[in-house]
Amino acid sequence: MSSCSTLCKSRASLERLFKQYSLPNHSSAIMCYQCDSQEDSSCPDSRYFDQRTNALIDCTSFQARVPGTFCVKIYQESTGWHSWIKVTRRCGSRPERIAWGCNYRFVDMGVYRETCYCSDKDGCNSSKSLAASASTLCLTGLLLLSRLNMSTAKPKLYYFGVRGRGELIRLVFAAGKIDFEDIRLTKEQWAEQKKNSPTGVMPFVDTGDKSKGLLAQSGAIARYYAKKAGLMGSNDWEYYLVERAMCQLDDIFMELVKFMMAPEDKKPDLLKEFQAEKGPKLLSGLVDFLKQAGGQYFAGKSLSLADLGCLNILDSLANMPDLLAKYPELTELKKRVLAGNAKLAEYIKKSAGDSDAMSSLTALCPNETAEDLAERSSILNISRMFLVCITPGLALLGIAANSVNIVVLTRKWMASSTNYYLTALAITDVIYLLLFYLITVKVYPGVRYQAWFFHLLAAMFPLANLFSNFATWLTCFFTFERWVVVYKPMFGRKYCTKERAKHTIAVIFLATLFFTFPNFLEYQVDSQNKGNSTSAPAVYTLGKTQAYLVMKQYGYYHLLPIVFIFGPLVFLAVFNSLLIGSVVRAKKKQEELSAALIPRRPSSTPRPSQQYAQIPMLTVATPRASVCSSVGLTAGSSGKQRRRQRRRRWARIRRRFG
Predict the structure, then answer these.
(1) Which secondary structure element, helix H or strand E, spans residue 541, and what is its range?
(2) Which residues pair with residue 544 across a beta bridge?
(3) CATH of domain 390-521+555-580
(4) SS3 491
(5) Considering the entire predicted model, what is its pTM?
(6) Neighbours of 48 (CB within 10 A)
């Protein structure tokens, strides 16, 4: 507020100062120097201007390129690795109401331009810089101050929560120590922000400068900020070295995109071709470029955009350790880059978790777009929270319940073929729940840096599959045994014994182990940042082995769903239906036998409720009959008579109570 008021108060004095530079008499000609520093060596851009080697030109003569009534000197200077200076001296023609002196401003591409006008004497445009009035200097200071404020605005990078095409820009910001806002959008947020994108796609950057607006195209954005941070080389030759390496890295990136977007049946062939032919050829060329530049960095002796691009590509090739092992020069370059830039190493360490998660997503969903991967990333965060907060409780509850079942079912008086199956199922569930919980531990922070855990994890995945498949077929055979017992009771009593149940459980386990054993050859432990400095520790992941590709090629992973999903599903559906039908038929047969053995009651027969009320009478009549029988025995009745009397007595009781 004070600066504005000061400027307003000095307006009158500024106008008075400007009026001091009144226009000359147009009827009199003026002599000015006329030359260009880029065309004439006698018109230097930075050395002392020698008036003896330059002739004055009459501004009203035909020799003047621009006829006029005063002299002009234009000084232009750019910044960056290809900076240049240009000085132009000539005659000028302007409207009469002109602010005499020097004007300072920045034009396109950040070029500084100083334009000075004079008419006080012949050859007044000879000096390197003309004296400016106090008012002009004041306005120039305000202009520079406002530009400084605009230049310090924090850029905002808009992209999804994945690496993709936005990662190189993030690396440039981190390595160039440029403070920025990393705005990672979800699919829903992108739908709202899409109208603000210059090209309708991401990434794009909001510079905070109204004169520049929004920046589009990831490659152009990375180069623009790399130039501002001094990461494009210090001269034309280094610029060429940087661009040469970047073009080679683009070729590698396009091969990876070609692989990820290919159909699933063609990926093994493309991967084999890349690892055997295209990958070694492209990486060898990259190593040659590095050696030609001196072997330290791609631009010579200083960090450049090409080194950051190489860092990004090496992370994308982390799942091909055998290929990268052939080029230790690139691994050493990665160490050198991270060791020489603490802020970049800090960013790599901070984003290691997200990179690992998204790399896994990209491997699982190679044909997904960036929007879909961002949506999957948010789902992944929700599932991670579920695994951390809820899974331990569910696993503990399941282990406790199955442990109680094991204790009860293993008692001697509980021994039976059915209980043997149930005991085996309970033990299998306990082991599976324990493995499941240990597998979910990998979502905890810091676990991805432990090599021993991932070696253990490579064994826990196939073990979990083994016991899951074992429980599936245990359930199938248990259902089959129940059907046999119900449908063929005599046959079931003979063959569904405890010893046969033990043998069946053992055979099922061995058969499941035979079909699941190839899973133990599927995984290997990969290190993404192995050998880096302490600021960027090694990040471990599970990768696929060559055996996995062979098994996939020969259809092993098509056989597994048939044996352990669709086959058991059909088996259970058939035998459960037969079991239910057998139970229904047995119940009907029992009712028919009961109806045949017990005659229909006459109308005078008491209702069931009355029969139930007469049960106490039956309990009384039975001991009374026994007493009477004992009395008869004491009376000396013969045995034959006693038996006849007893039968008559029971007949009367049956007739009375139905």
Answers:
(1) strand 540-544
(2) 523
(3) 1.20.1070.10
(4) helix
(5) 0.41
(6) 8
